[in-house]
Write a structure and sequence with these properties.
Elements: H1 3-29, H2 32-52, H3 58-69
């Protein structure tokens, strides 16, 4: 097996991994029940972080929550989609 073969296999695995994750995200985005449960868990984590820091870093915690939820299609600044 030469370097070209290893490179081709690596490229193929990378593309497969990306397609797999995109498929998981697409299924997640279409599952309203799972999104609601994830929002509840995210809110709970936000409350705990704010409680432990005495709300000192509230805006940073909120920014982090939005950055995590955004790629999952859970952007709270956008209106709910049916």
């Amino acid at each position: 097996m030469g370097i070209a073969d290893i490179s081709a296999v690596s490229s193929l695995l990378s593309r497969f991994r990306k397609e797999l994750w995109m498929g998981i995200f697409d299924r997640f985005k279409s599952n309203r029940q799972m999104q609601d449960k994830t929002k509840d868990m995210s809110d709970m984590a936000e409350r705990k972080a704010n409680d432990r820091t005495g709300n000192k870093y509230e805006s940073q915690v909120d920014d982090a929550q939005q950055k995590i939820e955004g790629p999952l299609g859970m952007d709270r600044d956008r209106p709910e989609q049916p």
